[in-house]
Design goal:
The chain has 188 residues and is α+β, with helices and mostly antiparallel strands. The protein is built from three helices and eight strands, in the order ααβββββββαβ. It has one domain: Peptide deformylase (Peptide Deformylase), CATH 3.90.45.10. Strands 1-2-3-6-7 form a five-stranded antiparallel β-sheet. A three-stranded mixed β-sheet has the order 5-4-8, with helices on one face. The protein starts with 28 loop residues before the first helix and ends with a strand.
Length: 188
């Protein structure tokens, strides 16, 4: 499937608010192919030459609903640092992902969040959980996995999971005080 900035579903389209359905396993070839195309989009979107050539906006994740398919599938590619300061590369093609545990500690990105489906700026802190454990089938490893995520990866996973429920990042911004600091939060 061709995925670029022209084919990404924008927040002006009501389909982006559709709740996504669970996906039957084992994956059909059509679903597996879509998931691989989604992953390729995310990987290519951070390559400046490919992004310009193919009209891609930079991304670390994408959910199937963003290409008009209301299925619980996402692709995520995140480079982060672990608690020892070492660079870690995460790459997932997740199906039927769900949070099975989360921290009480909140977290947010100091720069706010963005989204392929959102054209306009929505300044403000998007408060999420600092740590989550997500269980899902991962096409990349072809097995059920459990991801214990903290910090940036946790935020990215929660952002994509919100898409499964028709929720956008700016729904989580405090409308009265969008830049309100949150006590005890992990600020990334």
């Amino acid at each position: 499937m061709l995925i670029n900035n022209d084919t990404i579903v924008k927040d002006s389209d009501p389909i982006i608010r559709t709740k996504s359905k669970k996906v039957k396993l084992p994956l059909s070839e059509k679903d597996a192919s879509l998931l691989r195309d989604m992953l390729q989009y995310v990987k290519d979107s951070t390559d400046k030459e490919k992004a310009k050539k193919y009209n891609l906006r930079p991304a670390v994740g994408i959910s199937a609903i963003q290409v008009g398919v209301p299925k619980r599938m996402m692709a995520v590619v995140v480079d982060d640092v672990d608690k020892n300061g070492e660079l870690v590369h995460y790459e997932y093609m997740l199906v039927n992902a769900k949070i099975v545990s989360e921290s009480a500690q909140p977290a947010y990105l100091s720069s706010g969040e963005g989204c392929l489906s959102v054209v306009n700026d929505h300044p403000g802190y998007v408060v999420r959980k600092a740590r989550v454990t997500v269980e899902a089938y991962d096409l990349a490893s072809d097995k059920m996995i459990s991801i214990r995520a903290r910090g940036y990866l946790a935020i990215v996973l929660q952002h994509e999971l919100d898409h499964f429920d028709g929720r956008l990042f700016y729904d989580r911004i405090d409308k009265k005080n969008p830049m309100k600091k949150v006590d005890g939060a992990l600020v990334i």
